[in-house]
Amino acid sequence: KAGVTQTPRYLIKTRGQQVTLSCSPISGHRSVSWYQQTPGQGLQFLFEYFSETQRNKGNFPGRFSGRQFSNSRSEMNVSTLELGDSALYLCASSVEGRDNEQFFGPGTRLTVL
Amino acid sequence: GQNIDQPTEMTATEGAIVQINCTYQTSGFNGLFWYQQHAGEAPTFLSYNVLDGLEEKGRFSSFLSRSKGYSYLLLKELQMKDSASYLCAVRDSNYQLIWGAGTKLIIKP
């Protein structure tokens, strides 16, 4: 069974630009969650999508948005990038979101210059 | 606010036992998770506790006390490959996962 995949793995952008990250969950998983990971801060929850609907949202500004497609693939968009957005962005999938285990992808390392 | 506390870094010797503590204050409780994350890799699931007590899984055990807002991860017979960060997370009343900053475990020969 293929794991969670994320593309691209690495990205370099400049301030003010926008970026779109993609996540393909494990086949059969309908819940996708996104996290931002920075050194010393741990994982910060961005949002969760289930069956194409945003079910939960963390405390991030509106510049961070996402969506989920009918095949459960999810995208995350960050507009007007700031230096502080440099981080590892992880997505995790699970069957229905309230399972006892989430499966993480390898992450996208975003650097904003 | 919601808060998860765990030590930043711990050092242990190969073959020994180490206990990583996690204390939490969250809005509601729907389970506590431990994940392992090697440098540059994705977190991988280790354990899930929702009831008080000890859950044992091979060399790893996880304990939960809901009344004390406390959990620990116990690693026995440490191996060099156990060098990693260990992440504690609590699922709150909204089913959001609240994460600690992680404990970096260094294993010395």
Quick recap:
The complex is a heterodimer of chains A (113) and B (109). With 113 residues, chain A is mainly β. Chain A is 0% helix and 53% strand.
Protein model, in words:
The complex is a heterodimer of chains A (113) and B (109). Chain A contains no helices and 11 strands. By secondary structure, chain A is mostly beta strands. With 109 residues, chain B is mostly beta strands. The model of chain B has no long low-confidence stretch (mean pLDDT 95). Classes of the chains: A mainly beta (113), B mainly beta (109). Chain A binds chain B through residues 4, 33, 35, 40-45, 48, 56, 58, 90, 97-98, 100-107, and chain B through 4, 30-31, 33, 35, 41-45, 48, 87, 89, 94-102.
Query: Which word captures the global form of chain B?
Result: globular
- Biggest sheet features of chain B: 6 strands, mixed
Summarize the largest interface: chains and residue counts. A-B, 23 and 22 residues
Strand content of chain B: over 45%
- Major beta sheet summary of chain A: 7 strands, mixed
Low-pLDDT stretches of chain B are none
Shape of chain A: globular
Overall pLDDT of chain B: 95
First-last Cα distance of chain A:
37 Å
- What is the CA-atom radius of gyration of chain B, in angstroms? 13 Å
Q: How many E strands of chain B?
A: 11
| Alpha-beta content class of chain B | mainly beta
Uncertain parts of chain A: none
Mean pLDDT of chain A: 93
